[in-house]
Design goal:
Blueprint lengths: L16 H4 L6 E3 L4 E4 L12 E2 L2 H11 L5 E3 L23 E3 L3 E3 L5 E4 L5 E4 L9 E4 L12 E2 L2 E4 L5 E3 L2 H5 L10 E5 L9 E5 L4 E4 L17 E2 L4 E2 L15 E4 L7 E8 L7 H8 L1 H4 L5 H9 L11 H18 L4 H6 L2 H8 L12 E5 L9 E20 L28 E16 L1 H10 L1 H17 L13 H17 L10 E8 L8 E10 L15 H13 L9 H4 L80 E2 L12 E5 L2 H6 L6 E6 L12 E11 L2 E16 L6 E8 L5 E6 H6 L4 E3 L2
Parallel strand pairs: 4-22, 25-26
Antiparallel strand pairs: 1-2, 2-5, 3-4, 6-7, 6-10, 7-13, 8-9, 11-12, 11-18, 13-14, 14-15, 16-17, 19-21, 20-21, 21-22, 22-24, 23-24, 26-27, 27-32, 28-29, 28-31, 28-32, 29-30, 30-31
Length: 775
């Protein structure tokens, strides 16, 4: 595995993938094989780099035990020519073993395990990507066919994985049959219902769809197999009630077959003293120094280049101070402190003027945009960041996204990455940049008081979600509160917007949410860090930080929040409520508006609702941001006037009062209509009197966002029926799931709660607003 070569070979992974996508216990698909990454006992004891991050190491020790001594990178291949496949460098990597162990011949459809010796391994030292198993005794003539892995496996929620019980499944229980199995595909769809396993000996068969019918599932109890450790769990496999667990069938490439449990920390300075901070950053290289004389020896070997500006005496004194501080911290309450990785980061981000500048950490505070000054306490540009991540285990079926801290995941469901207690943990470090937003705490508190009903709704959905999955309680302790919904939704909206211009895809941007309610001994937190990072030693190139300047950031905040008003899946998206339709943990959000890639989100797209950011077509009164009376930040809508309305502006000439349109038929093609001052101000018209073009039945319908006057008997403004409305015209086509009938939801938006009404498809074709604003 290499971090710098331009032409990767088949089977190579990036260092970050060893933790996030293809870590220990996961299945990796190679050209002709399916393999599993093995546990730490099989990893090489050389070709790694030790990673320094004291805060993260302390948190890992808290989760894994005090025997953990270090954080290490995955094996790294030296940057040399590997044209000779027999060189030692060419075989450096992470160990794997074939899994699943049952294979299928694509010609004769023979299904058998590798232990049956029906399949022979063929290797090519010059082309390792051609390594494969072949069916040597295939009854279909021709070249020896390359067999493929059987794509069905079994797993349990405790993290165990096993081959599918093919023999017992097709025979519907234990059997003495001298079986010969085939895996037959009876249709082109590839669905489980079209796939049959057949025993040629006793001529019985069974569809694979039976394995996924939980009501009639007769799969065996879990054996506690841990193929990545080459053993069976000595504890067996039982649920929280000490009852045996039945395995579940799943496809080999199922997304819930492997979830990593990763602890991560930003390398933030812990001291304003530069020497003290350098000692902390390089403690793994200094902890075993016993005297000042050893420092001189190491310097002669050029091993302490970072401390070249300090004498041996100064460095030795700093090492002794560090040891004294570590001993003093071994007291009551220290365990809770090491688990809290975000509070030290919050303290540094909220006081950037006093933050120590290091080679891996550099902050610069900028003013929030004028339009958003009351919502943000400060915006901080992180010009350099370093993040270290460690893999402490993994799980299957149940996602760790239900927990704020992966270390809180139930230990009995956290699968080990080694047979014995691990003495080191696979980790990786990435460097990059980011933008930190500190929300105004007073504004957040005022908002949380105002949306207490929404908080109760999310809490009820949270409890239902955990009960449905049998997660341990008390559930209220794991509820992140409504301020987390606000911060999380804001982060996703901004990630989607910034990815359009910063040069990184949405999957390359990550969020780090700092959320804590008042009432505890620790400081309340309300902040979001949007950052990106790369494994390269120099990090990224500043494309994200450049968007944090006030003028540029104002434009992006405007666009990010404005896009939250309307979703292409509205009104279905806007009408969705947490816990109301199944056991969902999100409100008005979907893949079209607010969901982010798995690599970007801390909580698996849960606790999201765009109605907490801006008013939607279905909900008003919950939005944190109220931008209706502020400057539009440079946005220009061609349908609106150039100058805002003045309170002293008096209408001149002839005009029709807006509400007179209820009883007056306008004969002329155009007429001046007097609106209320509030309505004209909301539409940003230069005067309450504006010229409108009145439409006939054969006129072209106006475009979306055109300012129109609509006269219709079916309109509703909240719970109130209205017959006349003025505002921007929006509409959304929809189909009723039960009846299949098509309809159109029409929305007239000006300020506050929009006016809405529904038309059938035929009525929509005939519909014309009463008038449209002349541009």
């Amino acid at each position: 595995m290499s971090t710098s070569r331009e032409t990767p070979r088949v089977g190579e992974l990036r260092p970050s993938q060893i933790l996030t996508t293809f870590g220990i216990g996961s299945i990796v698909d190679l050209p002709h094989l399916s393999v599993m990454v093995m546990g730490l006992e099989d990893w090489p004891s050389t070709d790694y780099q030790e990673i320094n991050e004291e805060r993260l190491l302390a948190s890992v020790r808290d989760a894994m035990g005090s025997q953990v001594m270090s954080l290490r990178s995955p094996p790294v291949v030296p940057d040399t020519d590997r044209s000779n496949p027999f060189e030692q460098q060419s075989i450096v990597g992470v160990p794997v073993a074939p899994f699943p162990r049952w294979m299928v011949c694509p010609r004769c459809r023979r299904l058998a395990p590798l232990a049956s010796n029906q399949f022979i391994l063929k290797t090519d030292p010059f082309r390792p990507d051609r390594t494969r198993y072949v069916h040597e005794n295939c009854r279909v003539p021709g070249r020896l066919p390359t067999v493929i892995p059987a794509r069905f496996i079994t797993a349990c929620k405790n993290g165990h994985l096993d081959d599918f019980p093919w023999v017992d499944f097709v025979h519907r229980g234990p059997t003495r049959c001298s079986y010969k199995l085939q895996l037959l595909e009876m249709g082109p769809s590839g669905e489980a219902a079209d796939i049959y396993v057949r025993c040629e000996t006793c001529e019985i068969s069974r569809p694979m769809s039976d394995a996924f019918r939980l009501q009639t599932n007769d799969l065996p109890q879990c054996r506690g197999r841990r193929p990545h450790l080459r053993d069976f769990d000595e504890r067996g496999c039982q649920d929280e009630n000490q009852q045996p667990i039945q395995v579940r069938a799943m496809l080999q490439g199922a997304s819930n077959s492997w979830f990593p449990l990763i602890l991560s920390a930003l390398s933030v300075p812990e001291s304003a003293d530069l020497l003290k901070q350098l000692v902390i950053d390089h403690w793994s290289d200094l902890y075993d120094i016993e005297s000042e004389g050893e420092i001189a020896k190491l310097r002669r070997r050029n091993l302490l280049r970072e401390f070249i500006e300090y004498s041996e005496a100064e460095l030795w004194a700093a090492i002794q101070d560090k040891r004294d501080e570590d001993q003093a911290e071994e007291s009551e309450g220290a365990e809770e402190e090491v688990r809290d990785l975000k509070t030290p980061e919050w303290n540094v981000f909220t006081d950037p003027a006093n933050a120590q500048r290091t080679k891996d950490f550099r902050l610069r505070e900028v003013n929030p945009p004028n339009r958003y000054s009351k919502y943000f306490e400060r915006i901080v540009l992180a010009e350099r960041l370093r993040e270290v991540r460690s893999l402490i285990g993994f799980t299957r079926i149940e996602s760790p996204g239900d927990y704020e801290n992966p270390a809180d995941f139930p230990e009995e469901q956290r699968m080990a990455i080694s047979r014995a207690k691990a003495k080191w943990i696979p980790s990786n470090e990435i460097r990059g940049e980011g933008i930190f937003f500190q929300f105004n705490e007073d504004e957040v508190l005022n908002w949380t008081d105002r949306v207490s009903a929404l908080n109760e709704q999310f809490l009820a959905a949270h409890i239902d979600w955990r009960n449905a999955r049998g997660l341990p309680g008390p559930h209220e302790e794991f509820y992140p509160q409504i301020r987390f919904v606000l911060l999380h939704s804001f982060a996703h909206a901004l990630i989607r917007q910034l990815s359009l211009e910063c040069g990184y895809t949405a999957a390359s941007l990550r969020e780090r949410i700092y959320s804590r309610n008042p009432g505890s001994s620790k400081p309340e937190m309300a902040g979001v860090l949007i950052y990106t990072a790369a494994p390269d030693s120099e990090g990224t190139l500043g494309g994200l930080v450049s968007l944090g300047e006030p003028a540029v950031m104002e434009r992006h905040l405007n666009q990010a929040l404005d896009s939250m008003r309307l979703c292409s899946s509205d009104p279905l998206c806007a009408e969705h409520q947490a816990g109301k339709e199944g056991t969902s943990l999100h409100g008005a959000s979907c893949h079209a508006c607010l969901f982010a890639p798995e690599t970007s989100c801390e909580r698996g797209n849960k606790y999201l609702d765009r109605s907490v950011l801006m008013e939607t077509v279905d909900v008003a009164g919950l939005a944190f941001f109220d931008l209706s009376d502020s400057d539009d930040g440079g946005h220009h809508d061609p349908t609106l006037g150039e100058e805002p309305i003045s309170e002293e502006t008096e209408p001149e000439g002839e005009f029709i009062d807006f509400f007179d349109l209820l009883t007056t038929n306008v004969e002329e093609p155009t007429a001046r209509v007097k609106l209320s001052k509030d309505l004209a101000k909301a539409l940003r018209l230069s005067s309450p009197v504006a010229e409108f073009r009145f439409l006939a039945a054969n006129d072209e319908p106006p475009k979306k966002n055109a300012v129109v006057i609509v006269k219709h008997d079916a309109m509703a403004h909240g719970n109130e029926n209205v017959k006349l409305a003025c505002g921007k015209l929006l509409w959304q086509r929809q189909v009723d799931v039960a009846s299949g009938e098509a309809s159109v939801l029409v929305t007239i938006r000006a300020k506050g709660t929009p006016v809405k009404f529904k038309l059938s498809a035929a009525e929509w074709e005939e519909f014309r607003p009463l008038a449209v604003l002349n541009q």
